[in-house]
Amino acid sequence: MTTQTDGLSWTLLLEISGVTKEDGGAYKVNAKNKHGESNANINLNLEAPKGAKMPVFMGAPSISQQGSLTIMLVNVETETEPQVTWLKGASPVNSGGRINMITKKIKTGQFSISCEIKDASADDGGAYKCIVKNEGGEAVANINLNTVNKQKL
Questions:
Q1: CA distances (Å), 5 to each of 2, 9, 20, 70, in order?
Q2: Contacts from 19-27 at CB under 8 Å and sequence distance 24+?
Q3: Which terminal Cβ of the chain has fewer Cβ within 10 Å, N or C?
């Protein structure tokens, strides 16, 4: 396991060499500092039909703020455009109103998948799942969105 920083953010990398079916399963990372804590969960599923390659996440999920947008982002490698489902808890999240789901081709075999929430409120906080499927299987990323109420003084 290695960590990297650019001074503003940290990256934690778990690299598994010589991957076998037994390496599959649930992986979780927790991050904590004086401002709070967050976690990310990834389910590594290594079973796929012969010749088909399941989606593989390129790094950990991330959350960023760009103006009034809160963006949950995962990047994935897959040979074909994936089918993407976002859940909050057990309920599907759909595009519309303040919420926009985007799947963008980065380059051949790589896609950027995001869920953007405009003017996120405390009600938007919670446990989200991004389920990415193709003919080879599925991969699931868990993202915990913590929101803070802004109060006028």
A1: 10, 6, 30, 22
A2: 19/46, 20/46, 21/46, 21/47
A3: C
DSSP lists the bridge partners of residue 71 as 64, 116
The single-letter code of the amino acid at 69 is: L
What is Dmax (Cα atoms) for the chain? 61
The per-residue pLDDT for 153 is 43
Walk along the chain (153 residues) in steps of 10 and give the mean pLDDT of each run. Answer: 79 75 81 80 71 86 93 94 95 95 95 96 94 90 81 45
Report residue 23: phi and psi, to 5°: -75, -15
Q: How is residue 80 written in tokens?
A: 């074909």
pTM: 0.67
The pLDDT of residue 63: 94
